[in-house]
Amino acid sequence: MKFPIAVIMALLVGVVAMPSPAGADSLQQKIMAAKVVDLTHPMYDEMPFWPGGVPFKKTRLVDYDQGYQLHKFEMGENTGTHVDAPSHFIEGNRPIDEIPLGDLIVPAVVIDVQDKVADNPDYQLSADDVRAWEADHGTIPAGSLVILNSGWHKRFGEPARYINMDADGVMHFPGYGKDAGELLVARNVVGIGIDTLSIDHGPSKDFATHVVVLKANKYQIENMANLDALPPTGATVVIGVLPVKEGSQAQARIYALLP
Ligand SMILES: [Zn+2]
């Protein structure tokens, strides 16, 4: 490869960047310059899981004394940070491997209800809450992912407080109310996410918001982490969900690029 003398001289004295192909600057440099936040909880045997579900379990199959290390791990589809496919509740709707890639790299809208949850662990986001957020930040754009920051992600390391089950076996944690789900479907978001075990709040028996959102072929993300790092708008979220054929849910590595 030959460089013009002027470029070589400039590189030697360190005053210019290498020339790059037209167009490479914009996307690659923007990504390299962005702050990246991990919205995924790490996966380990003691992590919380849906009561009655399948916990994460990692087993060592081969160790270094045999030359290398190999584990297997097992868990339910809904253990840890994961995506619910529309087919989770609605027969015939999209399974996890058929969510289009274009729906998995999207702008994020973040609604923070930590002050309300402080007074009521069963708090449900309402359509009025969504409209109040829109009064401050503008109408939620079609094609965005709405994320509810309830503050619950801070309890993930304490399973009993995260599941928060009372003596009658009823769980207590916040969620999306059905009317909020209906309004967000009307806004044509790609999906909704939360930092608890379920989109519907802990005491729910009918999972009404699951039904509304999944029926509309939108997806859901549960057990999200680190939501305090996100601004109300401006982040781009990348959802690396496992493409399990005909899966109803699957784990995902999820991260946000901040402007
Ligand atoms: Zn779910």
Protein model, in words:
- The chain has a single domain (38-46, 77-258), classed as 3-Layer(bba) Sandwich (Glucose Oxidase, domain 1).
- A seven-stranded mixed beta barrel has the order 4-10-9-7-5-11-12. Strands 2-3 form a two-stranded antiparallel ribbon.
- With 259 residues, it is an alpha/beta fold.
- It is built from seven helices and twelve strands.
- The chain is globular and about 60 Å long.
- α4 (127-137) packs across α6 (178-186) and α6 (178-186) runs parallel beside α7.
- The longest helix is centred in the middle third of the chain and has 11 residues, at 127-137.
- It binds zinc ion.
- Zinc ion (ZN) binds at residues 84, 198-199, 210, 220, 222.
Strand and helix layout:
Blueprint (H helix, E strand, L loop, with lengths): L4 H9 L10 H10 L1 E4 L18 E6 L7 E5 L7 E3 L20 E8 L1 H6 L4 E2 L1 H11 L7 E5 L9 H5 L11 E2 L1 H9 L4 E4 L13 H8 L3 E4 L13 E6 L7 E10 L1
Parallel strand pairs: 5-7, 6-8, 7-9, 9-10
Antiparallel strand pairs: 1-12, 2-3, 4-10, 4-12, 5-11, 11-12
Helix pairs in contact: 4-6, 6-7
This protein binds zinc ion.
Zinc ion binds next to β10.
